[in-house]
Amino acid sequence: MPIVLSDLLTPSAAEVLSAAAAQLPFEDGARTAGSVARAVKDNEQAANVPETRAVTEKIQATLLSHPGFQAVAYPRQFARLIVSRTSGGGQYGDHVDNALIAGQRADVSFTLFLSDPDTYDGGELVIGDRIEDRQFKLDRGEAIVYPSNTLHRVNPVTRGARIVVIGWVTSWVRDPAQREILFDLWRAINTTDDPAQQQLLSKSRSNLIRMWAG
Ligand SMILES: O=C(O)CCC(=O)C(=O)O
Ligand SMILES: [Fe+2]
């Protein structure tokens, strides 16, 4: 169940991060892909320098303080964050993310879009949803969060450059179906005006987290 987070960053914060990301030194991304992904991956990623870490740390902190991200991901740890740039027809073919990334289990994946969508063509993140593919090309500062066990790809970028921050989270709740139930309960709590219902739903949600977290 992919979820779009539209209110992660203010437009000015997104602009600052986007400008900072565009200045980073980029290197070939195929080095970091697993053996299956390597055959389909065609992007660049920012080198591990302090300026890159400043961008990824800011995004990590922003995600951690966002209630919607908490409610969909139950983050226990960030396995890795990467600033990725794709241009010149580059793409990332159909793949599923590695189960283990930097020694951590990858449960939840995300892409935070940093480029103005008008400045490049293509570059949609396409997520297979069992019944149909869904395409996401988000505004600067918006992010999509989706379970790491889903098949996905990035369409070729045929004009301009697409800069995103991608990352993987180890979740307190490893089962995507359980996370979906918790997310539905969270939404129900936030949409009902009835305090008695809110209390019962919150109680159920907390007790399910207690049962499932680990
Ligand atoms: O660039 C993206 O939106 C996703 C990239 C991706 O799927 C990956 O690096 O595993
Ligand atoms: Fe991926």
Descriptive overview:
With 214 residues, the protein is of the alpha+beta class. It folds into two domains: 3-171, Jelly Rolls (Sandwich); 176-212, no CATH class. It has six helices and 15 strands. The chain has helices spanning 11-22, 35-38, 50-64, 67-73, 176-191, 195-212, and strands at 3-5, 26-28, 44-46, 75-87, 92-95, 100-101, 104-105, 108-113, 121-122, 125-128, 133-136, 143-147, 152-154, 157-159, 161-171. A seven-stranded antiparallel beta sheet has the order 1-12-8-15-4-3-2. The chain has a four-stranded antiparallel beta sheet with strand order 5-13-10-11, with no helix packed on it. A two-stranded antiparallel ribbon has the order 6-7. Helix 5 (176-191) packs antiparallel against helix 6. It is globular. The two termini are 21 Å apart. The mean pLDDT is 94. The structure holds 2-oxoglutaric acid and fe (ii) ion.
List its salient traits.
2 domains, binds fe (ii) ion, PKHD_hydroxylase, four-stranded antiparallel sheet, single chain, binds 2-oxoglutaric acid, metal-binding, iron ion binding, seven-stranded antiparallel sheet, Jelly Rolls, alpha+beta, 214 residues, PKHD-type hydroxylase, L-ascorbic acid binding
